[in-house]
Amino acid sequence: MTEENRFKQRYQAGNTPWDIGRPDSNLIYAVTTIPIRSCKVLDIGCGTGDNAIWLYQQGFRVIGVDTSDIAIENAREKASKANAECVFEVANILRNPVEGGPFGFVFDRGFFHTLGSDKERETFAEKVNDCLEKDGLWLSLLGNADEQRNGPGPPQRTARDIVNAVEPHFEILSLVSGAFGSNSPNPPRAWVCLIRKRH
To answer: Which of 68, 87, 88, 131 could disulfide-link to 75, CB 3.0 to 4.6 Å?
Structure first.
């Protein structure tokens, strides 16, 4: 089963623990403390749109893409209720060019870690690089392989997986161990990776 079909089934079944109903705390922290200037943003794997809507409310112009049509329908409904003029499209960035770039900021919460091979991750990093303007920033949240886990959770990647994929296109500004924003009392551990497009 492809990743796209697997996610479609999970949205249909309502088995979406990553959909927490609010923006991720790691995104809020990065945008408000670095700070990341208002610009055009691409939210990859945007899900039902909570992060994109929050970014719009902070003055960003936001395009969100996801492979799930159910997620995109929900994102559009949420944005309409919030009067957030985000653009949401069903698209797989690995196969579909994204219109509306270049972007000053790319955010992905849990897309990068779904890619199981070095080659797929390298291709994804190249696609993100192509989307970004000069000195553009990419914030990625990935499942952290340092977590010893007994139950289900997000795919886990090593720091080496990340570094191997993003070189030579990006300069790593920070790569820290943290946790996903979550409704669980024990949130899954995450890599919080902020990188900048090389000249």
So the answer is: 88
- Burial environment of residue 169 by CB neighbours within 10 A (0 to 12, 13 to 18, 19 or more): middle
Does the predicted TM-score (pTM) go above 0.85? yes
Burial of 26 per CB tally in 10 Å (0-12, 13-18, 19+): buried
Place of tokens 């010893």: 148
Identity of residue 88:
F
Give per-residue pLDDT as tens, 174-197.
999 999 998 888 899 999 999 999
Q: Which domain holds residue 77?
A: 3-16+23-197
- Least reliable range by pLDDT among 6-10, 99-103, 120-124, 178-182: 6-10
Q: Give the Cα separation of 141 and 160 in Å (integer).
A: 15
Q: What is the CATH number of the domain that holds 107?
A: 3.40.50.150
- Provide the domain count of the chain: 1
Half-sphere CA count of 43, side-chain side, radius 13 A? 27
User: What would the DSSP string read from start to end of 79-119?
Assistant: HHHTT---EEEE--TTTSPPTT--EEEEEEESSGGG--SHH
pLDDT band per the 50, 70, 90 thresholds, residue 139: very high
pLDDT reported for residue 104: 98
